[in-house]
Amino acid sequence: MTTRPSAFPGEKAADALNQLRQASPLVHCMTNDVVQSITANVLLALGASPAMVIDSREAAQFSAISSALLVNVGTLTDSRAQSMLAAIHAANNAGKPWVLDPVAVGALSWRSEFCQEIIRLRPAAIRGNASEIMALSGLAASGRGVDSADTSLAALPAAQSLALQTGAIVAVTGEIDYICDGENTCAVSGGDALMTKVVGTGCALSAVVAAFVSLPGDRLSNVAAACRVMSCAGEIASQGAKGPGSFQPAFLDALYSLDAKRLTAKNFRAGEA
User: Fold this and answer.
1) What is the count of structural domains for the chain?
2) pTM, rounded to two decimals
3) Does a structural domain hold residue 268?
4) Residues 192-205: pLDDT tens digits?
């Protein structure tokens, strides 16, 4: 039986968010075509600076001067894969962290093979849903594209194994998010079901993870802080939203106004639905 980890404290998330706003990291987002707008707006609302540089003639150069790189394979093409590889190598050479979002890995073979190739290139963090993390770790998973049929708790052993295999912090997200480094694990609950009704909230979280891993300090804590910030903002936004249409602007406003008081207002318990 899998032991449920302890909840990540809001105080640590508040400290990390303050650091992020002071640093205003430049995040190179090699993300999918569907989510570029919400990804950029989420980063801006939090105080980070987004940039979407994709072409192979520029991606490596830009990756080297950015604070962090996000690689999201949602709309993968051959040319984009080559650009991503060049950007990853440039980030590694420049000592900049990069984050993988393995969208639909396990459901589609070519992107699965590509992600298996690039996880050998030392990602700082990997963020995916349960089915994606299970498939990437080599375990059987039940997924349909970006949708997961597995729970995040069921995927926790796969996340721990993947963290040990790659050296990355692995965040397996769902109704409860679990963040681990292979030895230590913490949990973030909260959020709202409306987050699953707006395209791109998960992909935007991966960009936020990239922003947070650019900060100094404990990387496990920084990734958990990213999850906590997004979860808390989602919960706040849902309180006044009537549906997905009103949720998205409310979510951006919640991210923009998020502060220590709101991040520490609740002590979420791991395992709480």
Assistant:
1) 1
2) 0.93
3) no
4) 999 999 999 999 99
